[in-house]
Design a protein that fits this description.
By secondary structure, this protein is of the alpha/beta class. About 35% of the residues lie in helices and about 15% in strands.
Length: about 200
């Protein structure tokens, strides 16, 4: 998993509440367990019409938001079914951070397991980011180490995050990576067990 420390990137506003995981990545794109390529299905019904043509008015299709790595959106983002493909699709599209007033619990947990930073801010601060993202300057800073979001106009919004999750994001550790940190202790334990309980090693 790639570490997240700080990004300076474009922010795109998506002022919709209760965006569920089927809207983030529709069911027809769930036939794979590969993470690469899912970005093409991100917000598919928002981005494309019935003929597969891009909708020019959707925010992520507009030229000024191309390449946005931060998404600011409405309340209860990521609700619905517990599909891990949702954070995969966001990240494959290039989104590294989603800012909202709240997230669905399972989606929120899946974000940390995959290196996507979910930032919770008060409604008034989210609204400031929405308003500023619609202006001429679309650049924000998200600094995980300092736990702040800096708006296009320079306003600073601190955010809270669990200390252990922060540490794992900074180091780029998913559940497997965290376990591998104890690899030497695990190897030592298995060597000692092989001597003291050899019958457990028999096929």
């Amino acid at each position: 998993m790639q570490a997240f420390t700080r990004i300076d990137a474009k922010i795109a506003p998506l002022p919709l509440a209760n965006i569920d995981t089927d809207q983030i990545i529709p069911k027809q794109f769930l036939k794979t367990v590969e993470r690469e390529g899912l970005g093409r299905g991100l917000f598919y019904d928002f981005r494309f019409d019935e003929n597969g043509k891009e909708k020019a008015d959707f925010v992520l299709n507009r030229p000024e938001y191309k390449g946005a790595a931060v998404l600011v959106t409405g309340d209860n983002f990521g609700c619905g079914s517990s599909r891990e493909h949702a954070p995969w699709a966001l990240m494959d599209f290039g989104i590294s951070c989603v800012i909202s007033t709240s997230f669905a619990d399972i989606f929120y947990n899946n974000c940390f397991q995959n290196g996507l930073l979910p930032v919770v801010l008060p409604a008034e601060e989210v609204q400031v980011l929405m308003d500023e993202a619609r202006g001429g300057n679309h650049m924000v800073t998200v600094d995980l180490e300092k736990q702040v979001v800096v708006s296009p106009s320079g306003k600073t919004f601190p955010f809270q995050i669990d200390a252990s999750r922060k540490e794992k994001m900074l180091k780029g550790l998913d559940a497997i990576g965290e376990t591998l940190q104890a690899a030497s202790a695990i190897d030592s334990y298995e060597s000692k067990r092989a001597i003291s309980q050899p019958w457990l090693e028999r096929a």
